[in-house]
Amino acid sequence: MTLLEIRSLTHWFGGLRAVHDFNLDLLSGELVAIIGPNGAGKTTVFNLITGVYRPTQGSIRFQGRELVGLPSHEIISLGMARTFQNIRLFRELSVLDNVRIAHYARTHYSVWEALFRLPRFTREEERVRHEALELLDIFGLADLAELPAKSLPYGQQRRLEIARALATQPKLVLLDEPAAGMNPAEIDQLMETIRWLRSEFNLTILLIEHQMRVVMNIAERIKVLDFGQTIAEGTPQEIQHNPLVIEAYLGEETVL
Amino acid sequence: MKKAFWDRWGLPLILLLIFPLTILLPRSGLINPYIDLVLKYIGINIILTVSLNLVNGYMGEFSVGHAGFMAIGAYVASILTVWVFPPQWEAVLFPLALLAGGAAAGLAGLGIAFPSFRTRGDYLAIVTLAFNMIIKSILENLEVLGGPRGFMGMTKLTTLWWVYLMVILVIYLARNYVYSSFGRGVLSIREDETAANLVSVNTRQVKVLTFVFSAFLAGLAGGLFAHELQFINPRSFTILKSTDMLVMVYLGGIGSLGGSILGATVFTVVMEGLRSVLQAVGISQEWRLVVAPLMLILLMLFRPRGIMGLREFRFLLPREERSEVIRAAREAARAKAVIGEVRS
Predict the structure, then answer these.
(1) Cα distance from A118 to chain B (closest Cα, Å)?
(2) What is the ipTM of this complex?
(3) How many angstroms separate the Cα of A252 from the Cα of each of A236, A242, A244, B244, B323?
């Protein structure tokens, strides 16, 4: 089943064409990576999918539903989540609140029920607290629930960001350079985590990554972007030997 | 068992025991009218500070026009008690006038919420500043409401016990709001609005609710203020009044209800103390106008988060948010997770 279907997606920033005619079919359960040099438009693609920018052209369908024009929070509530290249936690807030905030769309009480603490409010709050703590426990963060997010070390902040993303109960997760700033041992652990997440939560994953080791190891399919254009597509093996890709990454002279 | 009882009922009991005092003390003459007045000002200022703190402290937006909301509440409540309510009923209908004043201000808050979708920071501050000036201009030009001369004829309906009840109600409601899904949405806007949207927070909804709620509270305070002074004019609600509110918020501490209480209390007492000091020394009272802005500058330089910045008194936290409850919930969540693992 096609989960995400992107057709001729194009985006201009003023006179700069950041993404040009981008197409993607993401099947349910797949793990696909988007790679490419700096400034190739990878993060822009994520921003277009999640409604941060509105594309100049093209269509994005998620489970058959058109996303272009929807506000971010609605897109997320449809079953999508993302993490960021540079961690974007709510730094001053507690670890628990970081995860609870991601329950916003799935919390069912009105503002009146909240103001007067009516039964449904109490019930829902208890459920949210419980679910959030369970999720934190899975990521080994439950004991830190009351600490401000900014006080966690880097690796734990990355994990908290993933936990927060999962709290929206997504089907599709967009990971933006999850291995950024990690050492080889941490990267090994991260790949383990991504594989495990995928099977445990039945996720489809779209991944942006710079580290070839990660991409070649876990991606089933790779798309290579350069200057907003898709220059290659295929399995890790195919990509590794594609002259266009080598050129984009290493420069023309080296290839010649 | 005993500790749990006091934990649950201690605060309500204390508040209940104080209530008769707020009726009896002013009547019996045990506190003189001046102290009575200062206490009422403290209460009104607490409501104003909580109101502004929701927007500036919790949400991280910057409103400098809250005196405009206060003005709307003051005028609407006064119109009701002076022109609409029959005189023999006005004391009973007073809370209704306050609510109506708050509701009218809340409606204006809705108007301010929309620009906040598109702009924030300095630009939104200018929008709120303009709003404050517009309200003042409108009131100055409405001859029917006395224009620049002001509006009068109100009975002194604002008693100490009314202020006391309203302060408790406001803090209760604000606390419930802040510690709810909506309140956490408010905090997430302050921390990172884009990230908030991308974890499913409907930030527009949160902004609308918060601006309306905040404006409602300011309007409520305006009604109390009007029926204490028994006379209001547009000049009572200028940017200077908004500045006072800013000082109270940033003195007490952003993102804190306890801070709002402290900030309003300390500020009111200092300003009143200054009045008698200036009088005693024989310096012009005009100098009081310098003190509030000066305090704001010093606070921003040396303690931008205020006394209680982002912290809260334990007694103001809902029970479910206290450490021991969260710890217990954590153990429960863990036990369930372990059972799940064993099963699978």
Answers:
(1) 11
(2) 0.93
(3) 21, 13, 9, 65, 60
